[in-house]
């Protein structure tokens, strides 16, 4: 869930990673839409990224995704 409820922030959507299979990452948004996450070339080549994203999917954590380009964002949040 998005912690910051500021209505000005509408370009970021929370999503859960549902499928991880090279070279694709599929996520389900809070609104229930499925999106293909656009990965950078660096992310595609990084074995640590694939291990990390698989662990995130297994833990069912919410991650911030840019709404327009469906990219994972480098800044995030955690709700405990």
Main attributes?
2 helices; 80 residues; four-stranded antiparallel β-sheet; alpha+beta; 4 strands
Notes on the structure:
Helix content is 22%, strand content 30%. With 80 residues, the protein is α+β, with helices and mostly antiparallel strands. The protein has a domain at 12-66. A hairpin with a 4-residue loop joins strand 2 (24-29) and strand 3 (34-36). The model has no long low-confidence stretch (mean pLDDT 85).
The beta-strand count equals 4
Secondary structure category: alpha+beta
The portion of residues forming beta strands comes to 25-35%
Mean pLDDT level: 85
Element order: H for helix, E for strand: EEEHHE
Largest sheet: 4 strands, antiparallel
- CA-based shape: globular
Give the radius of gyration: 12 Å
Helix percentage range: 10-25%
Q: Which residue ranges are poorly predicted, with pLDDT under 50 across at least 5 consecutive positions? A: none
Distance N to C terminus: 11 Å
Number of helices: 2
Topology at a glance:
Elements: E1 12-21, E2 24-29, E3 34-36, H1 41-45, H2 47-59, E4 62-66
Antiparallel strand pairs: 1-2, 1-4, 2-3
Short synopsis of the structure:
With 80 residues, the chain is of the alpha+beta class.
């Amino acid at each position: 869930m998005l912690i910051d409820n500021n209505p000005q922030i509408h370009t970021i959507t929370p999503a859960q990673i549902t499928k991880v299979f090279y070279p694709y990452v599929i996520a389900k948004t809070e609104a229930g839409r499925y999106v293909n996450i656009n990965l950078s070339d660096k992310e595609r080549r990084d074995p640590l990224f694939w291990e990390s994203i698989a662990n995130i999917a297994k833990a069912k954590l919410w991650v911030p995704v840019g709404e327009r380009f469906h990219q994972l964002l480098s800044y995030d949040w955690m709700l405990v």
